[in-house]
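Sequence design from tokenized structure. All designs in this work follow the same two-part layout: the structure record, then the generated sequence. An example of the structure record is given first.
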């Protein structure tokens, strides 16, 4: 099951327990291993047998299967045959008078007494052996009778019987197995479902990648810790392509659905074995079970079975461990029934035809609506009555209404479904909300209500990352707008169509959306046309055209706070991208926010926030949040990632980045750089020494020629090339990025490219070109007034030789340190301190501060460089033991990245002989013998 080895998860205590019982001379001769189906009894029994065999014990295995119960005394016969079996290599001559022959005759004659005597003899006279019997719940009742009457004295012989049986068995066999629990001298070991930690570990071993919290939590919720169910669920998700892997971590796709178990699955087969009535009742309960006691009444009506037959079927389901009976309020009468495994409930429900599900759901809706049928009671004012789980009651209610469809009152259904969708917090269960609104759309009969539902449906599709649906519905609203939609509604629809297209990274379509021709053919107000076209131009980084369009049409959009706020933000972003920040600074005041709906404030804040963090302007970004009253935690995932990156919470940033990149959720806000997610992710990976992974991240998100500028992505790629010593490739990347930005008239975000180009040309010995880069940086800093640009200019000025002012380098570095401290960004501050201290512009002791900052954020490569600087300054490096560990981890990481010794030497700024010596010490300390073993250890997390 774990696909990697035979070690069992979270079974150490039980393994030690059974080994002690079987190894003790006076230990019990009968040990029962109990647990619900799928909990791992067979794996546990197999592992027990392997350990016994490794210690030299003789082990025999007997397997009971479905159908054995119809063959009387079969298990006793198999036990006698196992006990009489001779060790391999010894001569075995069957005897007509031997125990096996007599047992075969007794079975033919159904002579239970004779079989009992033969088994007793075999147990008493048998050589030391352990007989492992799996799935005893399938055994025939006569054999279980014989076993339950046997005397099992301790230590009388060397024979040990280890039997595994499901705690819930098929009706008829359960009682006989349970009697074995009470046999004198027998011991029972119970295998419980796995806990949350071990579910995560099992999923990690199964997927060969570490599952994120959402995937692990969803797995635990659907399987309740039953390993067999975990295996079935992960198999289903994998076959459907719903598991995404990024950077050694596994994520559930944003549009993933719970898989339906196949017919040959153990949990499905267990239900099918119970027969037609039980299957029919289980199917009904998969829809109606949450209604409590009334579910059985409805089940009898819907299935046509008598109440007595329904009761018998429910008891069979409970005995088989498929359904649990829940206690009522008084603790005596049954209060309801729930499937033991939610995954089974989902499978049973999905195996119903849409018509059957609709009819059962309509019956549930009728019960749920009955308390609110009195006059004057609104459709969504009361909680779902009588539900077993009141917390999830509203969602269950909406699910049933959506399934019932036209079988219930359409108008009321639409009202409840849209209300339920509005109550659901975005990002919690967007796929479910999308299903509700799809049903509401299909049920809407009145044209007036149609467009409102479609508006909500399009927005839900966007949040659920169902971009084709969002685009189709948005375009439908624009091409055929109803009378209830005003110009502000259509302005929103226009923005949604453009935003969805951007998230699809469909640049040819975006180019069409940026033309007047595309919008002129739509029967929508000019406000919607201008706003939609301006947003398309922003996404294409055609900033000058954006500004000119909005200046020409200001009388169209500057008519009211709600009408002007979106175009005004686009205008401010265009000006900012071209290096004119004044309009953007005014926009940050958000003076129109009190007159805007919360959703509009939220979306505009997210766009501005992302744009500010493009140039690491954290102070302005925080001021914006204070102005709008929005905490960081409620911002979109991309905004939260950027904030975590800038503030040095890199573990959280990487977790978010992996999930977003794995699901292709690269939300495109109309900022000056749409590549911020992969670029900043690559920057973190570089700082950790993961150069190849950083380059792969860049390559995966590289846009085709003609796409908008990707300044941040070009900067990260250039840094990686510089680390590897390929300065020519770095220069080509930087000049390409600058050329693209120049073609779009973009200044904002190019400061990093100029700074890196200055460093590259300096290292290549082209001082004149480096000076030209420094002058470009100065013009950008003066023009924009941006602190980040000013800081980069100071650092470049200190690096680039200035014959006319040889004494300014130290002054610039001291000023850079002061500015970095004011800005307060951990990585930026640490790199500035390292640069200034190694140049002698500030006291060398500040290297310790840089060292601690790099350690706090997890910048392993920069921490290594700081250790080198500390030694060069003859300063102590804290914690020598930890230093050795960090050096080993960094070297192992570089090996796992596939770097050669020459490339490792470039990254670590060492010579190749020093790298070879470090490799030798690494092998010596760890016991690993080759690069391959190091790579394996790193990738499996066992280094």
């Amino acid at each position: 099951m774990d696909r990697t080895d035979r070690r069992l998860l979270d079974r150490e205590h039980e393994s030690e327990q059974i080994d002690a019982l079987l190894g003790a001379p006076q230990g019990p001769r009968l040990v029962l291993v109990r647990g619900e189906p799928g909990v791992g009894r067979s794996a546990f029994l197999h592992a027990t047998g392997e350990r016994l065999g490794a210690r030299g014990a003789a082990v025999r295995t007997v397997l009971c299967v479905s159908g054995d119960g119809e063959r009387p005394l079969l298990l006793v016969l198999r036990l006698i045959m196992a006990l009489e079996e001779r060790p391999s290599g010894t001569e075995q001559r069957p005897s007509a008078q031997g125990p096996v022959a007599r047992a075969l005759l007794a079975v033919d004659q159904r002579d239970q007494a004779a079989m009992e005597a033969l088994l007793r003899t075999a147990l008493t006279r048998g050589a030391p052996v352990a007989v492992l019997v799996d799935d005893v719940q399938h055994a025939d009742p006569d054999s279980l009778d014989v076993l339950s009457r046997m005397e099992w004295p301790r230590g009388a012989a060397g024979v040990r019987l280890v039997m595994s049986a499901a705690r819930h068995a098929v009706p008829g066999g359960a009682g006989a197995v349970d009697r074995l629990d009470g046999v004198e001298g027998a011991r029972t070991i119970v295998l419980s479902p796995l806990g949350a930690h071990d579910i995560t570990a099992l999923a990690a071993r199964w997927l060969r990648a570490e599952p994120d919290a959402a995937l692990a939590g969803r797995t635990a919720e659907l399987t309740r810790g039953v390993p067999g169910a975990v295996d079935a669920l992960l198999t289903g998700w994998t076959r459907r392509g719903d598991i995404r892997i990024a950077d050694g971590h596994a994520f559930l796709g944003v549009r993933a659905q719970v898989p339906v178990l196949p017919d040959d699955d153990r949990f499905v087969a267990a239900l099918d074995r119970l027969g037609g009535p039980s299957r029919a009742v289980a199917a009904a309960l998969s829809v109606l079970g949450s209604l409590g006691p009334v579910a059985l009444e409805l089940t009898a009506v819907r299935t046509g079975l008598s109440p007595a037959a329904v009761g018998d079927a429910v008891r069979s389901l409970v005995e088989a461990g498929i359904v649990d009976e829940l206690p009522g309020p008084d603790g005596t009468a049954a209060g309801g029934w729930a499937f033991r495994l939610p995954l089974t409930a989902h499978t049973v429900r999905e195996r119903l035809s849409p018509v059957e599900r609709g009819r059962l759901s309509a019956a549930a809706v009728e019960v749920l609506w009955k308390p609110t049928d009195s006059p004057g009671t609104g459709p969504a004012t009361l909680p779902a009555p009588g539900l077993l789980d009141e917390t999830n009651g509203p969602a269950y209610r909406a699910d049933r209404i959506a399934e019932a469809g036209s079988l219930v009152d359409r108008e009321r259904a639409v009202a409840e479904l849209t209300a339920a969708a509005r109550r659901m917090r975005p990002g919690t269960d967007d796929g479910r909300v999308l299903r509700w609104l799809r049903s509401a759309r299909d049920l809407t009969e009145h044209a007036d209500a149609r467009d409102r539902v479609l508006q909500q449906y399009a927005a839900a599709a966007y949040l659920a990352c169902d971009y084709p649906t969002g685009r189709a519905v948005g375009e439908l609203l624009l091409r055929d707008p109803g009378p209830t939609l005003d110009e502000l509604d259509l302005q929103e629809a226009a923005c949604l169509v453009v935003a969805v297209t951007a998230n699809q990274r469909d640049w040819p379509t975006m180019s069409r959306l940026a033309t007047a021709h595309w919008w002129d053919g739509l029967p929508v107000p000019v406000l919607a046309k201008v706003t939609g076209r301006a947003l398309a131009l922003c996404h294409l980084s055609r900033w000058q055209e954006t500004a000119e369009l909005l200046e020409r049409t200001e009388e169209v959009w500057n008519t009211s706070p709600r009408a002007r706020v979106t175009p005004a933000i686009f205008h401010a972003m265009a000006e900012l991208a071209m290096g004119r920040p004044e309009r953007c600074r005014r926009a940050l005041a958000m003076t129109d926010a009190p007159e805007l709906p919360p959703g509009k404030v939220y979306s505009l804040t997210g766009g501005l926030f992302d744009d500010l963090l493009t140039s690491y302007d954290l102070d302005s970004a925080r001021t914006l949040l204070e102005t709008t009253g929005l905490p960081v935690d409620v911002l979109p995932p991309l905004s939260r990632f950027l904030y975590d990156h800038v503030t040095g919470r890199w573990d959280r940033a990487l977790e978010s980045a992996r999930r977003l990149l794995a699901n292709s959720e690269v939300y495109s806000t109309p900022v000056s750089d749409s590549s911020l997610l992969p670029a900043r992710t690559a920057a973190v990976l570089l700082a950790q020494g993961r150069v190849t992974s950083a380059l792969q991240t860049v390559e995966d998100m590289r846009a085709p020629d003609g796409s908008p500028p990707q300044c941040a992505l070009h900067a990260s790629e250039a840094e990686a090339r510089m680390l590897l010593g390929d300065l020519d490739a770095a220069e080509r990347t930087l000049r390409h990025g600058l050329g693209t930005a120049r073609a779009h008239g973009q200044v904002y975000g190019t400061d990093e490219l100029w700074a890196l180009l200055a460093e590259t040309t300096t290292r290549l010995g082209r001082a004149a070109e480096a000076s030209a880069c420094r002058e470009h940086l100065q013009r950008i800093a003066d023009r924009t007034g941006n602190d980040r640009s000013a800081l980069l200019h100071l650092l470049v000025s200190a690096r680039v030789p200035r014959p006319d002012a040889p004494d300014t380098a130290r002054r610039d570095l001291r000023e850079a340190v002061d500015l970095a401290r004011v800005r307060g960004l951990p990585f930026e501050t640490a790199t500035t301190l390292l640069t200034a201290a190694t140049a002698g512009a500030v006291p060398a002791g500040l290297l310790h501060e840089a060292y601690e900052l790099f350690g706090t954020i997890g910048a392993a490569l920069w921490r290594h460089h700081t250790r080198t600087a500390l030694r060069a300054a003859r300063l102590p490096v804290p914690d020598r033991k930890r230093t050795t560990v960090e050096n080993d981890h960094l070297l192992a990481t570089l090996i796992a990245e596939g770097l050669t010794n020459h490339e490792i030497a470039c990254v670590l700024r060492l010579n190749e002989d020093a790298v070879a010596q470090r490799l030798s010490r690494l092998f010596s300390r760890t016991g690993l013998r080759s690069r391959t073993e190091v790579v394996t250890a790193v990738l499996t997390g066992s280094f």
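The longest helix spans residues 767-784. We note this feature because it recurs in several other targets discussed in the main text.
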